[in-house]
Amino acid sequence: MTSEIGSESSSDLDPARLFAPVAHQRTIGLAVSGGADSLALMLLYAGWTAPEKPKAIVYTLDHGLRPEGRGEAEMVVREAARLGLPARLLTWEGPKPLSGKQQAARAARYRLIGEAMKADGVALLLTAHHRRDQAETMLMRLAHGSGVTGLGAMRSFSCVEGVAVFRPLLEISPDTLAACVEQTGLSPAHDPSNADPAYERTRWREALAQLEALGLTEDDLARAARRLQRIDALAERITDEFLATHVTRDRLGVLKLTRPALVEADREIAIRALARLLAAASGSRSYALARIEALAERIGSGANFAATLGGARCEAGNDTVVFYREAGRKPIAPVQLAPGETHLWDGRFTITASVPARVGPATAMTRERFKALAGTPLWCPVAALRAAPLICDDHGTVLALGALVIQPGVRVGQPPLTASSANCGNRPPQMPGALVSPE
Asked: Which residue in 96, 99, 88, 104 sits closest to 64, CA to CA?
Protein backbone atom coordinates (compact mmCIF):
# COMPACT_ATOMS: atom_id res chain seq x y z
CA MET A 1 0.00 0.00 0.00
CA THR A 2 2.71 2.48 0.90
CA SER A 3 4.68 1.80 -2.26
CA GLU A 4 1.66 2.69 -4.39
CA ILE A 5 1.26 6.03 -2.68
CA GLY A 6 4.97 6.74 -2.76
CA SER A 7 5.05 6.11 -6.54
CA GLU A 8 2.13 8.45 -7.31
CA SER A 9 2.72 9.61 -10.89
CA SER A 10 1.85 13.27 -10.30
CA SER A 11 4.86 15.29 -9.21
CA ASP A 12 2.50 17.26 -6.99
CA LEU A 13 2.12 14.17 -4.81
CA ASP A 14 5.80 13.33 -4.56
CA PRO A 15 6.33 12.81 -0.80
CA ALA A 16 9.96 13.90 -1.10
CA ARG A 17 8.79 17.28 -2.39
CA LEU A 18 5.85 17.65 -0.02
CA PHE A 19 7.82 16.87 3.14
CA ALA A 20 11.23 18.31 2.20
CA PRO A 21 10.70 21.43 4.40
CA VAL A 22 10.57 19.21 7.52
CA ALA A 23 13.21 16.65 6.56
CA HIS A 24 15.57 18.06 9.20
CA GLN A 25 13.12 17.46 12.05
CA ARG A 26 13.77 14.61 14.46
CA THR A 27 10.10 13.80 15.13
CA ILE A 28 6.90 15.25 13.70
CA GLY A 29 3.21 14.81 14.48
CA LEU A 30 0.46 13.98 12.00
CA ALA A 31 -3.05 15.24 12.77
CA VAL A 32 -5.39 12.57 11.38
CA SER A 33 -9.16 12.72 11.88
CA GLY A 34 -10.07 9.79 9.65
CA GLY A 35 -11.39 11.95 6.83
CA ALA A 36 -10.04 11.54 3.31
CA ASP A 37 -7.70 14.53 3.51
CA SER A 38 -5.91 13.51 6.68
CA LEU A 39 -5.82 9.83 5.72
CA ALA A 40 -4.08 10.90 2.51
CA LEU A 41 -1.57 12.87 4.56
CA MET A 42 -0.80 9.78 6.63
CA LEU A 43 -0.52 7.55 3.55
CA LEU A 44 1.75 9.98 1.74
CA TYR A 45 4.01 10.31 4.75
CA ALA A 46 4.21 6.54 5.13
CA GLY A 47 5.12 6.36 1.45
CA TRP A 48 8.04 8.75 1.86
CA THR A 49 11.08 6.54 1.37
CA ALA A 50 13.81 8.89 2.61
CA PRO A 51 16.22 6.76 4.69
CA GLU A 52 16.50 9.29 7.51
CA LYS A 53 13.06 10.89 7.43
CA PRO A 54 11.68 12.16 10.75
CA LYS A 55 9.89 9.74 13.02
CA ALA A 56 6.14 10.40 12.89
CA ILE A 57 3.50 10.07 15.61
CA VAL A 58 -0.15 10.10 14.56
CA TYR A 59 -2.55 12.08 16.76
CA THR A 60 -6.27 11.47 16.45
CA LEU A 61 -9.05 12.82 18.62
CA ASP A 62 -12.49 11.66 19.69
CA HIS A 63 -14.32 14.93 20.29
CA GLY A 64 -17.25 13.17 21.93
CA LEU A 65 -19.66 15.13 19.74
CA ARG A 66 -20.87 12.24 17.55
CA PRO A 67 -21.48 8.55 18.37
CA GLU A 68 -19.34 7.56 15.37
CA GLY A 69 -16.37 9.61 16.55
CA ARG A 70 -14.82 6.90 18.71
CA GLY A 71 -14.92 4.31 15.96
CA GLU A 72 -13.39 6.75 13.48
CA ALA A 73 -10.51 7.52 15.83
CA GLU A 74 -9.95 3.81 16.46
CA MET A 75 -9.87 3.24 12.70
CA VAL A 76 -7.09 5.83 12.43
CA VAL A 77 -5.08 4.02 15.11
CA ARG A 78 -5.49 0.69 13.28
CA GLU A 79 -4.47 2.10 9.91
CA ALA A 80 -1.52 3.91 11.43
CA ALA A 81 -0.34 0.62 12.94
CA ARG A 82 -0.63 -1.08 9.54
CA LEU A 83 1.63 1.63 8.13
CA GLY A 84 4.13 1.22 10.95
CA LEU A 85 3.27 4.54 12.57
CA PRO A 86 2.69 4.91 16.32
CA ALA A 87 -0.60 6.62 17.16
CA ARG A 88 -2.21 8.28 20.14
CA LEU A 89 -5.97 8.39 20.54
CA LEU A 90 -6.96 11.46 22.54
CA THR A 91 -10.36 12.23 24.04
CA TRP A 92 -12.05 15.57 24.63
CA GLU A 93 -13.75 14.95 27.95
CA GLY A 94 -16.15 17.05 29.98
CA PRO A 95 -19.21 19.12 29.05
CA LYS A 96 -19.50 20.44 25.49
CA PRO A 97 -20.81 23.89 24.55
CA LEU A 98 -24.32 24.27 23.15
CA SER A 99 -23.15 26.91 20.68
CA GLY A 100 -19.86 27.61 18.95
CA LYS A 101 -19.13 23.88 18.79
CA GLN A 102 -16.76 24.03 15.83
CA GLN A 103 -14.62 26.75 17.38
CA ALA A 104 -14.57 25.00 20.75
CA ALA A 105 -13.73 21.66 19.13
CA ARG A 106 -10.88 23.24 17.19
CA ALA A 107 -9.44 24.84 20.32
CA ALA A 108 -9.76 21.56 22.24
CA ARG A 109 -8.15 19.64 19.39
CA TYR A 110 -5.05 21.83 19.28
CA ARG A 111 -4.86 22.00 23.07
CA LEU A 112 -4.99 18.24 23.54
CA ILE A 113 -2.69 17.48 20.62
CA GLY A 114 -0.30 20.20 21.79
CA GLU A 115 -0.16 18.67 25.27
CA ALA A 116 0.48 15.22 23.82
CA MET A 117 3.18 16.59 21.52
CA LYS A 118 4.93 18.22 24.44
CA ALA A 119 4.89 14.95 26.36
CA ASP A 120 6.27 13.12 23.31
CA GLY A 121 8.95 15.70 22.54
CA VAL A 122 7.35 16.64 19.20
CA ALA A 123 7.81 20.24 18.02
CA LEU A 124 5.84 20.36 14.76
CA LEU A 125 2.37 19.15 13.71
CA LEU A 126 1.48 18.38 10.09
CA THR A 127 -2.13 18.99 9.04
CA ALA A 128 -4.03 18.13 5.86
CA HIS A 129 -5.36 21.56 4.87
CA HIS A 130 -5.62 21.63 1.08
CA ARG A 131 -6.24 23.97 -1.85
CA ARG A 132 -10.00 24.21 -1.39
CA ASP A 133 -9.54 25.01 2.31
CA GLN A 134 -7.21 27.79 1.21
CA ALA A 135 -9.75 29.19 -1.25
CA GLU A 136 -12.53 29.11 1.35
CA THR A 137 -10.30 30.83 3.90
CA MET A 138 -9.50 33.63 1.47
CA LEU A 139 -13.20 34.21 0.71
CA MET A 140 -14.09 34.25 4.41
CA ARG A 141 -11.37 36.75 5.23
CA LEU A 142 -12.32 38.95 2.30
CA ALA A 143 -15.85 39.10 3.70
CA HIS A 144 -14.48 39.91 7.17
CA GLY A 145 -12.52 42.93 5.90
CA SER A 146 -9.05 41.45 6.23
CA GLY A 147 -5.95 43.21 4.96
CA VAL A 148 -3.08 41.80 2.93
CA THR A 149 -1.89 39.48 5.70
CA GLY A 150 -5.29 37.88 6.18
CA LEU A 151 -6.04 37.63 2.48
CA GLY A 152 -2.86 35.61 2.12
CA ALA A 153 -4.91 32.95 3.96
CA MET A 154 -3.08 29.98 5.48
CA ARG A 155 0.72 29.81 5.42
CA SER A 156 2.68 26.62 5.01
CA PHE A 157 4.08 27.20 8.50
CA SER A 158 2.25 28.98 11.30
CA CYS A 159 1.40 28.85 15.00
CA VAL A 160 -2.15 27.76 15.90
CA GLU A 161 -3.36 27.81 19.51
CA GLY A 162 0.27 27.60 20.63
CA VAL A 163 1.07 24.65 18.34
CA ALA A 164 3.63 24.93 15.53
CA VAL A 165 1.94 23.71 12.34
CA PHE A 166 3.12 22.72 8.84
CA ARG A 167 0.60 22.32 5.99
CA PRO A 168 2.26 20.39 3.15
CA LEU A 169 -0.92 19.92 1.07
CA LEU A 170 -2.04 23.52 0.50
CA GLU A 171 -1.47 23.28 -3.25
CA ILE A 172 -3.22 19.92 -3.63
CA SER A 173 -6.86 19.46 -4.64
CA PRO A 174 -9.06 17.53 -2.18
CA ASP A 175 -10.23 15.40 -5.11
CA THR A 176 -6.65 14.26 -5.66
CA LEU A 177 -6.30 13.43 -1.98
CA ALA A 178 -9.57 11.48 -2.03
CA ALA A 179 -8.29 9.49 -5.01
CA CYS A 180 -5.15 8.61 -3.04
CA VAL A 181 -7.27 7.11 -0.29
CA GLU A 182 -9.68 5.39 -2.65
CA GLN A 183 -6.91 3.48 -4.44
CA THR A 184 -5.88 1.88 -1.14
CA GLY A 185 -9.38 0.58 -0.45
CA LEU A 186 -9.80 2.61 2.74
CA SER A 187 -13.21 4.06 3.63
CA PRO A 188 -12.70 7.54 5.06
CA ALA A 189 -14.89 8.99 7.78
CA HIS A 190 -17.50 11.61 6.86
CA ASP A 191 -18.42 14.32 9.36
CA PRO A 192 -21.96 15.57 8.58
CA SER A 193 -21.17 18.96 10.13
CA ASN A 194 -18.97 19.68 7.10
CA ALA A 195 -22.16 19.93 5.04
CA ASP A 196 -24.21 21.83 7.64
CA PRO A 197 -25.08 25.35 6.35
CA ALA A 198 -25.30 26.54 9.95
CA TYR A 199 -21.51 26.86 9.79
CA GLU A 200 -19.90 29.74 7.91
CA ARG A 201 -17.25 27.66 6.17
CA THR A 202 -19.93 25.35 4.76
CA ARG A 203 -21.75 28.34 3.27
CA TRP A 204 -18.55 29.60 1.66
CA ARG A 205 -17.90 26.12 0.31
CA GLU A 206 -21.28 26.25 -1.41
CA ALA A 207 -20.59 29.79 -2.64
CA LEU A 208 -17.26 28.65 -4.08
CA ALA A 209 -19.09 26.16 -6.28
CA GLN A 210 -21.22 29.01 -7.63
CA LEU A 211 -18.16 31.20 -8.22
CA GLU A 212 -16.49 28.40 -10.16
CA ALA A 213 -19.46 28.43 -12.53
CA LEU A 214 -18.58 32.08 -13.18
CA GLY A 215 -14.93 31.25 -13.84
CA LEU A 216 -13.41 31.96 -10.41
CA THR A 217 -11.95 28.63 -9.30
CA GLU A 218 -10.35 27.41 -6.10
CA ASP A 219 -7.06 27.30 -8.01
CA ASP A 220 -7.43 30.99 -8.91
CA LEU A 221 -8.09 31.92 -5.28
CA ALA A 222 -5.24 29.80 -3.94
CA ARG A 223 -2.88 31.34 -6.50
CA ALA A 224 -3.99 34.84 -5.48
CA ALA A 225 -3.35 33.94 -1.84
CA ARG A 226 0.20 32.84 -2.67
CA ARG A 227 0.85 36.12 -4.48
CA LEU A 228 -0.48 38.11 -1.55
CA GLN A 229 1.77 36.11 0.76
CA ARG A 230 4.78 37.30 -1.25
CA ILE A 231 3.66 40.91 -0.94
CA ASP A 232 3.00 40.39 2.76
CA ALA A 233 6.46 38.92 3.33
CA LEU A 234 8.08 41.93 1.63
CA ALA A 235 6.03 44.37 3.70
CA GLU A 236 6.96 42.50 6.88
CA ARG A 237 10.67 42.74 6.08
CA ILE A 238 10.35 46.49 5.51
CA THR A 239 8.44 46.76 8.80
CA ASP A 240 11.24 44.87 10.55
CA GLU A 241 13.72 47.45 9.28
CA PHE A 242 11.47 50.33 10.33
CA LEU A 243 11.07 49.00 13.87
CA ALA A 244 14.78 48.32 14.23
CA THR A 245 15.51 51.92 13.27
CA HIS A 246 12.75 53.89 14.97
CA VAL A 247 11.64 51.91 18.07
CA THR A 248 13.25 51.20 21.43
CA ARG A 249 11.97 48.91 24.19
CA ASP A 250 13.10 49.10 27.80
CA ARG A 251 13.34 46.33 30.36
CA LEU A 252 9.88 47.06 31.76
CA GLY A 253 8.27 46.46 28.38
CA VAL A 254 7.73 50.13 27.47
CA LEU A 255 8.14 50.87 23.76
CA LYS A 256 9.00 54.27 22.31
CA LEU A 257 8.35 55.13 18.67
CA THR A 258 9.73 58.15 16.82
CA ARG A 259 6.51 59.89 15.80
CA PRO A 260 7.77 61.82 12.73
CA ALA A 261 9.16 58.59 11.29
CA LEU A 262 5.77 56.90 11.52
CA VAL A 263 4.03 59.89 9.94
CA GLU A 264 6.49 59.86 7.03
CA ALA A 265 6.38 56.09 6.53
CA ASP A 266 4.33 54.37 3.86
CA ARG A 267 0.83 53.86 5.26
CA GLU A 268 0.97 50.06 5.01
CA ILE A 269 4.26 49.97 6.91
CA ALA A 270 2.95 52.39 9.53
CA ILE A 271 -0.11 50.22 10.14
CA ARG A 272 1.98 47.07 10.44
CA ALA A 273 4.41 48.77 12.80
CA LEU A 274 1.55 49.90 15.04
CA ALA A 275 0.08 46.39 15.03
CA ARG A 276 3.38 44.96 16.23
CA LEU A 277 3.82 47.66 18.87
CA LEU A 278 0.31 47.18 20.26
CA ALA A 279 0.79 43.41 20.38
CA ALA A 280 4.20 43.72 22.03
CA ALA A 281 2.92 46.24 24.58
CA SER A 282 -0.19 44.30 25.58
CA GLY A 283 0.93 40.72 25.02
CA SER A 284 -2.11 40.19 22.80
CA ARG A 285 -1.78 38.51 19.43
CA SER A 286 -3.94 40.62 17.13
CA TYR A 287 -6.03 43.76 16.80
CA ALA A 288 -8.85 44.69 14.42
CA LEU A 289 -7.32 46.27 11.34
CA ALA A 290 -9.85 49.12 11.33
CA ARG A 291 -8.79 50.18 14.85
CA ILE A 292 -5.12 50.23 13.87
CA GLU A 293 -5.91 52.28 10.77
CA ALA A 294 -7.80 54.77 12.94
CA LEU A 295 -4.85 54.98 15.35
CA ALA A 296 -2.47 55.66 12.46
CA GLU A 297 -4.74 58.50 11.31
CA ARG A 298 -4.81 59.98 14.80
CA ILE A 299 -1.03 59.86 15.18
CA GLY A 300 -0.69 61.43 11.75
CA SER A 301 -2.95 64.34 12.74
CA GLY A 302 -0.18 65.82 14.90
CA ALA A 303 -2.38 66.21 18.00
CA ASN A 304 -1.11 64.90 21.33
CA PHE A 305 -3.37 62.32 22.97
CA ALA A 306 -3.58 59.25 25.19
CA ALA A 307 -5.69 56.22 24.37
CA THR A 308 -6.14 52.58 25.32
CA LEU A 309 -6.64 49.83 22.76
CA GLY A 310 -7.35 46.31 23.95
CA GLY A 311 -5.00 46.36 26.91
CA ALA A 312 -2.29 48.57 25.38
CA ARG A 313 -1.81 52.16 26.48
CA CYS A 314 -0.75 54.60 23.74
CA GLU A 315 0.52 58.09 24.65
CA ALA A 316 1.40 60.36 21.73
CA GLY A 317 3.63 63.38 22.35
CA ASN A 318 5.31 65.84 20.03
CA ASP A 319 8.23 63.61 19.07
CA THR A 320 7.48 60.16 20.46
CA VAL A 321 4.62 57.72 20.90
CA VAL A 322 4.88 55.50 23.98
CA PHE A 323 3.22 52.07 24.27
CA TYR A 324 2.87 49.93 27.39
CA ARG A 325 0.53 47.38 28.92
CA GLU A 326 -2.51 48.71 30.75
CA ALA A 327 -2.02 47.68 34.38
CA GLY A 328 -4.77 45.67 36.03
CA ARG A 329 -6.98 45.26 32.97
CA LYS A 330 -6.61 41.49 32.90
CA PRO A 331 -5.50 40.24 36.32
CA ILE A 332 -2.92 37.48 36.09
CA ALA A 333 -2.62 34.85 38.79
CA PRO A 334 0.85 34.42 40.32
CA VAL A 335 2.96 31.56 38.98
CA GLN A 336 5.40 29.38 40.92
CA LEU A 337 8.47 28.31 38.94
CA ALA A 338 10.70 25.36 39.77
CA PRO A 339 14.42 25.52 39.00
CA GLY A 340 14.95 25.12 35.26
CA GLU A 341 11.35 25.97 34.40
CA THR A 342 10.49 28.59 31.77
CA HIS A 343 7.27 30.59 31.65
CA LEU A 344 5.92 33.16 29.18
CA TRP A 345 4.39 35.85 31.38
CA ASP A 346 1.50 37.83 29.85
CA GLY A 347 2.90 37.31 26.36
CA ARG A 348 5.72 39.81 26.98
CA PHE A 349 8.39 38.27 29.20
CA THR A 350 10.04 34.85 28.97
CA ILE A 351 11.19 33.94 32.49
CA THR A 352 13.57 31.09 33.27
CA ALA A 353 14.33 30.37 36.92
CA SER A 354 17.43 28.64 38.27
CA VAL A 355 16.02 28.74 41.82
CA PRO A 356 12.44 28.36 43.12
CA ALA A 357 10.71 31.59 42.13
CA ARG A 358 7.30 33.22 42.28
CA VAL A 359 6.09 35.53 39.51
CA GLY A 360 3.26 38.01 39.95
CA PRO A 361 2.24 41.48 38.78
CA ALA A 362 4.02 44.42 40.40
CA THR A 363 0.71 46.12 41.15
CA ALA A 364 1.87 47.65 44.47
CA MET A 365 5.23 48.93 43.19
CA THR A 366 6.03 52.62 43.76
CA ARG A 367 8.64 54.99 42.37
CA GLU A 368 10.45 54.97 45.72
CA ARG A 369 10.47 51.17 45.97
CA PHE A 370 11.72 50.88 42.40
CA LYS A 371 14.59 53.30 43.02
CA ALA A 372 15.60 51.37 46.13
CA LEU A 373 15.63 48.10 44.19
CA ALA A 374 17.14 49.26 40.90
CA GLY A 375 19.41 52.01 42.19
CA THR A 376 18.07 54.41 39.58
CA PRO A 377 15.00 56.65 39.28
CA LEU A 378 11.99 55.30 37.40
CA TRP A 379 12.11 56.38 33.76
CA CYS A 380 8.58 55.45 32.67
CA PRO A 381 4.97 55.89 33.85
CA VAL A 382 4.15 54.17 37.15
CA ALA A 383 1.29 52.37 35.37
CA ALA A 384 3.82 50.69 33.07
CA LEU A 385 5.92 49.69 36.06
CA ARG A 386 2.93 48.10 37.78
CA ALA A 387 2.12 46.05 34.68
CA ALA A 388 5.56 44.41 34.75
CA PRO A 389 6.16 41.03 36.41
CA LEU A 390 7.74 41.00 39.87
CA ILE A 391 9.92 37.92 40.38
CA CYS A 392 10.90 36.86 43.91
CA ASP A 393 12.58 33.83 45.45
CA ASP A 394 11.07 31.72 48.23
CA HIS A 395 12.31 34.19 50.85
CA GLY A 396 10.64 37.19 49.21
CA THR A 397 13.87 38.63 47.84
CA VAL A 398 13.23 40.45 44.57
CA LEU A 399 15.16 38.76 41.76
CA ALA A 400 13.85 40.80 38.84
CA LEU A 401 11.33 43.41 37.83
CA GLY A 402 10.35 42.92 34.21
CA ALA A 403 13.57 42.14 32.34
CA LEU A 404 15.58 44.16 34.88
CA VAL A 405 17.45 41.45 36.79
CA ILE A 406 18.39 42.58 40.31
CA GLN A 407 19.66 39.35 41.90
CA PRO A 408 20.99 36.09 40.39
CA GLY A 409 18.60 33.18 40.04
CA VAL A 410 16.53 34.18 37.04
CA ARG A 411 16.86 35.05 33.35
CA VAL A 412 14.25 37.22 31.64
CA GLY A 413 13.87 37.83 27.91
CA GLN A 414 11.39 39.63 25.66
CA PRO A 415 9.97 38.18 22.41
CA PRO A 416 11.35 39.93 19.32
CA LEU A 417 9.47 42.67 17.52
CA THR A 418 10.46 41.17 14.19
CA ALA A 419 8.07 39.14 12.07
CA SER A 420 10.22 36.01 12.16
CA SER A 421 7.40 34.00 13.71
CA ALA A 422 4.34 36.01 12.79
CA ASN A 423 3.28 34.59 9.44
CA CYS A 424 6.02 32.11 8.91
CA GLY A 425 5.48 31.38 5.23
CA ASN A 426 8.02 28.74 4.25
CA ARG A 427 9.89 28.71 7.56
CA PRO A 428 9.11 26.84 10.76
CA PRO A 429 7.76 29.19 13.45
CA GLN A 430 9.71 30.17 16.53
CA MET A 431 7.95 29.29 19.77
CA PRO A 432 6.87 30.71 22.12
CA GLY A 433 5.88 34.35 21.98
CA ALA A 434 5.07 34.71 18.30
CA LEU A 435 3.36 37.96 17.39
CA VAL A 436 0.74 37.93 14.67
CA SER A 437 0.18 40.84 12.30
CA PRO A 438 -3.36 42.08 11.70
CA GLU A 439 -5.55 40.28 9.21
From this structure: 96
User: Is the pLDDT assigned to residue 25 strictly greater than 50?
Assistant: yes
- Residue 420 in any domain: the answer is no
Q: Is residue 363 part of a domain?
A: yes
Specify the number of domains making up the chain: 3
- Range of weakest confidence among 302-306, 395-399, 417-421: 417-421
Q: Are residues 79 and 211 in the same domain?
A: yes
Indicate if 91 and 209 belong to the same structural domain. yes
Q: Using an 8 Å Cβ cutoff, are 287 and 275 in contact?
A: yes
Report pTM: 0.84
Alpha-carbon distances of 326 from 272, 321, 344, rounded to whole Å: 21, 15, 18
Which secondary structure element, helix H or strand E, spans residue 167, and what is its range?
Answer: none
* Rounded alpha-carbon distances, angstroms, from residue 86 to 60, 71, 221, 429: 11, 18, 36, 25
How far apart, in whole angstroms, are the C-alpha atoms of residue 200 and residue 106? Answer: 14
* CATH label of the domain that carries residue 193: 3.40.50.620
